[in-house]
Amino acid sequence: MKVIIADDEPKICNLISKLVDWEDLDMEITAIANDGLEALTAICQFKPDIVITDIRMPGYDGLELIRRGQECSPDTEFIIISGYRQFEYAKNAIHYGVKNYLLKPIQKNELTETLTKIHNSYIQKHSAITNEEKYQLLVENSRNQKRMEFLQDAFIKNTPVLSSLPLKEICSTYSFSFENGCFQTIIIKADGLDRSMHAETDYIYNKIQDFATARLSTLCYDSACIQEESFYYILVNYTEENQKQVRAAMKRFLNDLLCQKEVLQHMNVTLGMGCVQKSPKDLSLSTKTARLAIEQRLVLGTNILLDESHITGGTPDSSMVKEFNRRFSASIDRLNESEMHDSFTYLKKHLSQTPEISGHSILQLSKEIIHLYMVTMQQNNFLLPDKEVFLDNFYKALDNQSSWQNVLSLLSKNILDSYQLSCTARKQEANKPIREAKNYIKQNIKESISLEQISSMAGFNPSYFSSLFKKETGITFSEYVIQVRMENAKELLKETDWNISVICEEVGYNDLKNFNKNFKKYTGLRPNEFRRIYS
Q1: Residue 163 in contact with residue 183, Cβ under 8 Å?
Q2: Under a CB-based contact definition with an 8 Å cutoff, are residues 2 and 49 in contact?
Q3: Three-class SS of residue 395?
Q4: Are 204 and 188 in contact (CB under 8 A)?
Q5: Whole-number average pLDDT of the chain
Q6: Facing residues of 231 across strands?
Q7: CB-CB contact of 82 with 56 (8 Å)
Q8: Where does 243-363 show beta strands of DSSP type E?
Q9: In the chain, at which end, N or C, are there fewer CB atoms within 10 A of the end residue's CB?
Q10: Who's near 245: CB < 8 A, 6+ residues apart?
């Protein structure tokens, strides 16, 4: 594989060229460039497989070099290396599809792992490999697939069948190298990632896999990682003697991830360690405590390591919850949005005064409130469009909050936004008979139109329909009919040379004298005077 190194500091270029064993990686350095222009020329000339570049250089900076380099050599993989600590540069590099971002000072192991990963990917893409290599790839892919099936069952599906399998059978069936000892679930939670930007979540997942390998491979019999949304689950198996070392490695692991905030500045990371178990049969308990520890970030903060010692049992006071429910439900019953705001203010105030409240209880309370909202809205005959989508979006957003205050803000915003949409829908539904009546009048203005006729079509008695019509339009039914007739007459007087008597009939009058009288009253002019002025 051909490699180009680009950095405006010759010392850095020299360091990179000597840092790894290129021949052992089946790679060769094709060119070294000290500015962006020189690097782009080399890329276009040699079509390298890999470009290692600084993010800031004279000529073209790293981002511009990537953009232009991808145009002339689309298959080239880029590795960004820089000490430049600015979020936008790194973020843009990820959005260009760059998955490899290394911070200075460059570590030999990290660079070697990155190059090896690119090399393995390169082999899979190209068909010119030996049968033995193809077989090895098939074996590796099959092994990885089996391991992912186990992790899916253990962490995401929570399949009970795993609890009945002996250790040796798990190893043979799912390609693990487990030994008797300690089994533990570790969860990494990345908050603040844009879920629509797959490049960000993929980037972090790749980094987690790399760091897990670097920190755990020498301490564990086996370890494996799987992603679900913004949760990253790691299963580790190690000797009891290594328990303290694994915890220390997890602290260094967290520091590795926090360094990535230079790349994704808006990201917050929490690492939750589940309780240690002696068998994979009990992984569900380890996973539960890891999850509870992660949820505790809502109270204790993010960018820290949490374990079962941080889990508290504090719950919101039941009388406070009861009072909130009363206020909240009453605000919907009375259609009072201001009271709804006040109920959330009341909730926030009292939660802030609750000692040792748990993150789990905050999440449970928010889910209970969202369901209370939906039930109360249904009891008040409000339409809630796309209820399943509404709940699904809320739960996904709930998982991405990093504090209990953010949870309450999300809760109140989702409820208030939904309430306003429902109120608008109800108003539109209530206005429907009036809208249909107005539309009928406009389309049949030439015909005789009466209140009795239209109210019967709408399904109301004339008295109620008359009051409803005035409430919605601000004028009486007869005033509206005259308004429509007169506006039509004005247009015909301006746009046609028809006789006044013809126009009179076109807008629904049989008596010319009555038409002239109403027209003058409406416009202040006789029809022929209006025509002379405006036609």
Answers
A1: no
A2: yes
A3: helix
A4: no
A5: 87
A6: 189, 228
A7: yes
A8: 268-273, 305-306
A9: C
A10: 219
Laid out side by side, the sheet with 222-228 consists of: 222-228, 231-238, 182-191, 268-273, 305-306
| Burial environment of residue 82 by CB neighbours within 10 A (0 to 12, 13 to 18, 19 or more) | buried
Model pLDDT for residues 476-529, shown as the tens digit of each residue: 999 999 999 999 999 999 999 999 999 999 999 999 999 999 999 999 999 999
DSSP state, 276? P
CB-based contacts of 341, cutoff 8 Å, min separation 6: 412, 416
DSSP 101-142: EEESSPPHHHHHHHHHHHHHHHHHH-S---HHHHHHHHHHHH
- Burial class from Cβ neighbours inside 10 Å (0-12, 13-18, 19+) for residue 98 reads buried
CA distances from 109 to 9, 112, 126, 214 (A): 22, 5, 26, 8
| Dihedral, CA of residue 483, residue 484, residue 489 and residue 495, to nearest 10 | 120
How far is 213 from 223, CA to CA, in rounded Å?
Answer: 8
What are the average pLDDT values for consecutive 10-residue runs of the chain, which has 535 residues?
90 90 91 88 90 83 82 87 62 69 82 88 67 66 86 81 79 92 95 73 82 89 90 95 95 88 81 94 92 96 95 90 93 89 94 90 95 88 82 92 95 93 78 86 91 88 88 90 93 92 93 93 92 84
Strand ranges inside 257-351, DSSP E:
268-273, 305-306
pLDDT digits (tens, 9 = 90+) for 389-414: 899 999 999 999 999 999 999 999 99
